Amino acid sequence: MAKKKTKAKKNKKAPSKFPKVIITRKHKVLLGSFLMLLGIALTIAFISFLFNWKYDQDTIGYFTDRNIETKNWLSKFGAEISHFFIYKGFGIASFSLAILTSLTGIYLFFNLNSKSLKNFWFWGILVMIWFSTLLGFFATKNALLGGVIGYETNDFLQDYLGFTGTLLVLIFVMIAYLVIRLNITPELVASYFERTKKEVSQDFEDSKAKEEEILQDFLKKEQEEQTQQTHNVQDNASAEAKDVKAETEETLQESTPAPKPEPKSEKIVIEGNEEEGDVSMEVETTVEEEEEVDTLSKKLVKDFGEFDPTLELQNYRFPTIELLKDYNAGGGGITINQEELEENKNNIVNTLKNYKIEIAQIKATVGPTVTLYEIVPEAGVRISKIKNLEDDIALSLSALGIRIIAPIPGKGTIGIEVPNKNSTIVSMRSVVASAKFQNAEMQLPVALGKTISNETYVVDLAKMPHLLMAGATGQGKSVGLNAVLTSLLYQKHPAEVKFVLVDPKKVELTLFNKIERHYLAKLPNSEEAIITDNTKVINTLNSLCIEMDSRYDLLKDAMVRNIKEYNEKFKARKLNPENGHKYLPYIVLVVDEFADLIMTAGKEVETPIARLAQLARAIGIHLIIATQRPSVNVITGMIKANFPARIAFRVTSKIDSRTILDTGGADQLIGKGDMLYTQGNNLVRLQCAFVDTPEVEKIVDFIGAQKAYPDAHLLPEYEGEESGTGLDIDVSERDKLFREAAEILVTAQQGSASLLQRKLKVGYNRAGRIIDQMEAAGIVGPFEGSKARQVLITDLVALDEFLNNE
Ligand SMILES: Nc1ncnc2c1ncn2[C@@H]1O[C@H](COP(=O)(O)OP(=O)(O)OP(=O)(O)O)[C@@H](O)[C@H]1O
What we know:
This protein is of the alpha/beta class. It has five domains: 164 residues, no CATH class; 65 residues; 82 residues, 2-Layer Sandwich (Threonyl-tRNA Synthetase, Chain A, domain 2); 243 residues, Rossmann fold, CATH 3.40.50; 81 residues, Winged helix-like DNA-binding domain superfamily/Winged helix DNA-binding domain (Arc Repressor Mutant, subunit A), CATH 1.10.10.
């Protein structure tokens, strides 16, 4: 019980802690500049101390006495602090402290990734201790070099390990540093020497070749001079020259670089017994050739560093947290209303008593929108009884949005969720600033909102791997979509993720147009990156399928299983861009109002969507589809089977809830971002993070104002059937009735399929196909909606001529 109380206390306190954790950009700039200057001050003080320490010795300890003067360039502060760190501390190794302080300042000031900073501090301090001990070891008489700590550490080690032992420890620490921090291995050192050796011998060969060239030039000149002399002399001279030439050739032959050594082979001889007539046999075993691939990639990484996909936009700045509004700035998180809690508790206890269910324990967890009352029934009460009474209990408590979970999975208690009278908005700012989101080691982290116990809920879109969002209109779907997109914008560089946005309503996602050249992907030749026309969606989906197939080919070629491994290999320069390899960004396809799409395009979109959903997980294409019409003809079995991660906002009926989640519950939500999330197993009730349109606008403005790529990310080209208009229809594939049909239309001067149907007595499909073939041939014009097509040939004679000339 006592434990529970403290837990409850923790929960109560948790929200008020939040604002304290947030370090704003201003704080960072201030602290960063302070630390940079402090580092510089320390360096100045330390340098000055090295020259003036003897004089300043007497002044130490008189910090408050203003009459005493020091020679340190930073006066008393400099003398005292240097005395503390250099003399009493780590000796001249203390300079590393000044460097680390400045470095921290630089990181904060420029808002750099602070992960590597921890590494710098750890190794910096280790090197400092090591160096001061080393100096304490070798320069025992000069206290200034190793400092007191260096001297004492060394003394301590020598007492226990002796002179040699201490030396060995120092050497080991150095090796550890070289191996762990600088990744220097014996192989690397060996390969360095090997390379240098090769370079030196190459230099020798080059100079030899030059010498040969000079020699040949010289010989040529000699020869020319000699041809001008008398015949006799000429003969002699040419004979001599021949000699010299022969000699030169000999040397030339020697100096020409030897052909590449074949892999060495070892010869083993199996001796036969000659007396018995046996023949001896030579067995040749070849030594394996060395693999060059790895050493090449290592060399590339060594020369150019790992491939950095963000290099093209290396000055890109992630949106700052200040762009998001702090909805709870005044109130400070969840407020707990004791009276309300008491009232609800009594209500629950009494209601259950009416049904003769006694309660042993009850515990409340206050969340942003609902409070969860966890009940432990008295021994002997069957859970199924409570489950059967679910509706009656909800009715007795007479509040909207009550959900009973009997039992809570994995807990053995019964949960009753009762909405709070005053709900708290979960701001996007609070979830983005949370440590859970900031430190999330996920490929595509998405902060969905907060759980009932007020914890930030972060999921990995890459693991989902596709998300279905549904809910009645006005319950928070668009806000939810924006929360997902915003999360990704806060964590992923434009080089790492691209969005394909489909927005038939034309208003929800339009804002993201501003980041077209940073984050959006589109078809080549399309003007707008955000797709608002349903017919164009089909082309985009098919293009994504092409992209998927080509990505699979790349993965196969690279012999990896997924995009993460592929990109790691590419970064390590193990994949050659000349073979078509490139860094692959994640692609997130967002379809708002999926119902609209299915209604207009049906199978044509369902098939590629299902294909992508089934196969695209490994190659980094993830789908998010949202709909306000959660009926079975929209969320079909095929869609459901491939979208294990689902979010349900409030719906109007239990049937709708079943369609989305395979279980009830979404009909009991209270709306305004109250939602249920499942990833195939448990249902989690969450309050969706709230991000308003002006906030999204600020973020996209912030990103849009920065340097961008020249164009949006281009998807592979896909020529839709309707855009091709069958122009490539082969003449030999024409319908048998083609000529007859053409004559009918030219005579009637009316390009109508129904006319063909009537005259030729063919079905609608065949008539349509013939018309398409005629369009391809140039006999009739393009489809003009309700009007009949224009006939481009005036009479039968012209038609005859036209067809004969084809
Ligand atoms: N997470 C949330 N927290 C607080 N209020 C919310 C939240 N989500 C939505 N709301 C409220 O609900 C309103 C409607 O939300 P939203 O526009 O997202 O609904 P929708 O389901 O997309 O509706 P539609 O399908 O008609 O576009 C918002 O204007 C806001 O006031």
